[in-house]
Amino acid sequence: MTTVLETDEHKALRAAVAALGTRYGREYLTKVIAAGAHPDELWSEAAKLGYLGVNLPEEYGGGGGGIAELSIVLEELGAAGCPLLMMVVSPAICGTVIARFGTDTQKQEWLPALADGTRTMAFGITEPDAGSNSHRITTTARRDGTDWILKGRKVFISGVDIADATLIVGRAEDARTGKLKPCLFIVPRDAPGFERRQIDMELHGAEKQFELTLDDVRLPADALVGDEDAGLLQLFAGLNPERIMTAAFAIGMGRYALSRAITYARERTVWRDPIGAHQAIAHPLAQAHIDLELARLMMQKAAFLYDSGDDAGAGEAANMAKYAAGEACVKAVDQSVHTLGGNGLTGEFGLASLITASRVARIAPVSREMILNYVSHQTLGLPKSY
């Protein structure tokens, strides 16, 4: 069995990205969010240094690496307090799907631009009435001559306002069976009939959430990504990296919160010794660190399996990694805020906002309950309850 440990190249990548993240930090991202802007400066610099496209093929301007490398980038930016959520969507999901299944024309049009950060792509799968059940997706794609006509709705789609296009998951009729099958379409942001409405979120982030309406959006034949008969394979080729990158996002956030708490616990003195000398403070922080490290190991395993071409093995590991990282992140943030007491709720220390943000890793892109369902029947062989 191959040992999943980081290479010297991975360690060097971590150090380089950490240095970039430290130059920007949480204060930069907080200002961007308060201004209702986007982290364009950080996005552009990360792109110029080759970090955004590190997983994309070299022949299209990428780094020739995999999700293992891309997850390192996102984790280290998160640990510095300035994660880029669109990394989960644009290079990880959309870039991966196009690189694996896109036509030569689609690859040439999109991959170099996704790699150098000049273009971004959003991903639309979630629907108001489908929730976690992707088999209930009602966005349909029907042929009209050589064109496709898309009709439906999507919800909680990140970054549509800044994305040049959205990779939409629809369902088309299988000519052989008459049943609907998933298909992926590149929908330009200015396509007639493609409308968006921003969702008012309690969660404050640089990337906004949108509800989308596709009202008979007409697309040319070449908007279809890959083979219309291989929709599920192509779909999960994007969803596994999404779970791995969500784990990286959560681990980075947890590490950032924990680092703030550790610094505080070393310096804060109430009685005679710093509060970090007391086991009631020290032990929960140590447990949070252990949980984050364990989650990272599973994330590394999932990335290794995915990059090795083991889609089935990666599916199981990616779900487990996302679950473990979400739980570890929430606990790390909670314990970090608790360590600071009232200071943990102030704007000065910047931890309180993470209480809400950390919940995302438990909810999106799939809830922890659905992951437990997956493990129950896929890994343990238990019967389905749904």
User: Per the principal axes of the C-alpha atoms, what is the gross shape?
Assistant: globular
**Sheet with the most strands?**
7 strands, mixed
Helix content: 40-55%
Strand content: 5-15%
Structural class: alpha/beta
Low-confidence stretches: none
Summed up, the helix count is 10
What is the gyration radius calculated from CA atoms? 21 Å
Distance between the termini: 36 Å
Order of helices and strands: HHHHHEEEEEEEHHHHH
Name the average pLDDT.
94
How would you describe what is shown here?
Helices cover 51% and strands 14% of the residues. It is α/β, with parallel strands linked by helices and 386 residues long.
SSE inventory with pairings:
Layout: H1 8-34, H2 40-48, H3 67-79, H4 86-101, H5 104-115, E1 121-124, E2 140-144, E3 147-158, E4 165-173, E5 180-188, E6 194-198, E7 209-219, H6 231-267, H7 279-307, H8 311-340, H9 352-363, H10 368-379
Parallel strand pairs: 1-4, 2-4
Antiparallel strand pairs: 2-3, 3-7, 4-5, 6-7
Helix pairs in contact: 1-3, 3-6, 4-5, 4-6, 6-7, 6-8, 7-8, 8-9, 8-10
Tag the structure with descriptive keywords.
about 375 residues; alpha/beta; 10 helices; 7 strands; globular
Question: Quick gist of this model?
Answer:
By secondary structure, the protein is of the alpha/beta class. 51% of the residues lie in helices and 14% in strands.
